Amino acid sequence: MVSRLYILIALSLFCLALVQSTVDARPSNRIVAVGDLHSDYSNTLAVLQMAKIIDSRGNWIAGQDTLIQTGDNVDRGSGTIAIFKLLQKLRKQAKNAGGALARAIRAVGQEVMNLHGDLRYVTKDEIASFGGPEARKAAWDMQTGWLGSFIYNSFNISHIQNGHTVFSHADMSVEWAKKGVEQMNIMAHQALSEKSFEEPIFKTYGPVWNRDLAKQTAGEEETCEIIDKIKRILGVNRLVSGHTAQSKTGKVLSLCNGGYIDIDVGITGYYGGHLAALEIIENSDGTQTVSAIYPTRKIVIS
Ligand SMILES: *[C@@H]1O[C@H](CO)[C@@H](O)[C@H](O)[C@H]1NC(C)=O
After folding, report:
1. Which residue's CA is minimally distant from atom 7 of ligand 1?
2. From ligand 1's centre to the CA of 71, what distance in Å?
3. Helix, strand, coil in percent for the chain, rounding step 5
4. DSSP reduced 3-state for 77
5. How far does residue 267's CA lie from ligand 1's centre (Å)?
6. CA distances, 179 to each of 158, 174, 224 (Å)
7. Any ligand 1 atom below 6 A from CB of 156
8. What is the CATH number of the domain that holds 83?
9. Pocket perturbation via mutation, ligand 1, pick of 155, 156, 161, 201 by most ligand atoms within 8 A of CB
10. Distance 129 CA to ligand 1 centre (A)
11. Which residue has a Cα nearest atom 4 of ligand 1?
12. Ligand 1 neighbourhood includes 182 CB (under 6 angstroms)
């Protein structure tokens, strides 16, 4: 059971995938990120439509924009297959869009648990949607399953976008940041391929589970110091995570002047069905304007 959980986690981490195409044109200056979707397909469509990433038929309309999804697309609901099929389609459409730099990125979270065969949060309906436990297991196989291999090959545990923002499913720590994003990605893939789901990278204080920043466990001031330190180590302007559901407020959590942003607003009906996405606009002077997009308004964070 525990090892299944870690597979899910590893998969979740691997959802930080970067899809990239290089047709020539002016690259977009817009990056959109959405947090945990948890098998809620209709709210996935709703949040991506709200952020003008897809149209009402679920097709990519964001041209050369970048979409980043921070993992946890499984569990708690029955729309796992539909969500991953949508992500696969969007990855292709983004790649072909407008002839420039189109990327779709995601970071894996609870997917690692599923890769590992830990199904503790998986619903009965969801298992039935795969055609039963055996068929589900086959789909999640990292070598031979359509879903397992997609997650293993297309996602990472962490990702730095254009040098200014680091994305991970859960929170970074100083210790993990010191290893660097590339090393974390290599370590996570290595552990997955060896089915070593007990590695520290998949455990409580690793970037798939840690909640210390969102919960400010070290206290307000100290947490800001930690965030600044992690930013310095990784050379970025901000850290963006999902994982710690802000279901009480349904709002994007911004700490330390936008140095840390939690985008898990509880998009899935299970956590309240709150719609929100993060938008980062890259300005010509090298700065970024970061906003939270909600159904009726957009609020500038930093
Ligand atoms: C995952 O990370 C590795 C190491 O940083 C990188 O080489 C690779 O391109 C990344 N893969 C994806 C899908 O982003």
Report:
1. 182
2. 15
3. 35, 20, 45
4. coil
5. 27
6. 12, 9, 20
7. yes
8. 3.60.21.10
9. 156
10. 31
11. 182
12. yes
Which of 209, 262, 260 lies closest to 236, judged by CA? 260
Residue 205 sits at the vertex; the CA angle it makes with 204 and 209, to the nearest 5 degrees, is: 55
Residue 188 has which token pair?
């996570």
Atom of ligand 1 nearest to the CA of 18: 14
Mean pLDDT confidence for 146-155? 91
| Domain limits for position 21 | 2-300
66 lines ligand 1 (CB under 6 A): no
| Radius of gyration, alpha carbons of the chain | 18
Q: Give CA–CA dist 199/120, Å, rounded.
A: 19
Nearest atom in ligand 1 to the alpha carbon of residue 186 is: 4
d(CA 27, CA 266): 31
Q: Collapse the DSSP code of 106 into the 3-class scheme (helix H, G, I; strand E, B; otherwise coil) and give the result.
A: strand
Instruction: Give the E-state strand segments of the chain in sequence order.
Output: 18-22, 30-34, 66-69, 101-106, 158-161, 165-168, 238-241, 253-255, 260-262, 277-282, 288-293, 298-300
Higher pLDDT, 75 or 238: 238
Fill in the amino acid letter for 147.
L
Cα of 203 vs its chain's centroid, Å: 17
- Per DSSP, the three-state class of 126 is helix
Token duo for residue 108: 């894996």
pTM: 0.89
State the total domains in the chain: 1
The Cα 192–Cα 54 span in angstroms is 32
Q: pLDDT tens, 95-105? A: 888 533 445 55
Q: Is the CB of 44 under 6 A from ligand 1?
A: no
Model confidence pLDDT, tens digit, residues 200-253: 999 999 999 999 999 999 999 999 999 999 999 999 999 999 999 999 999 999
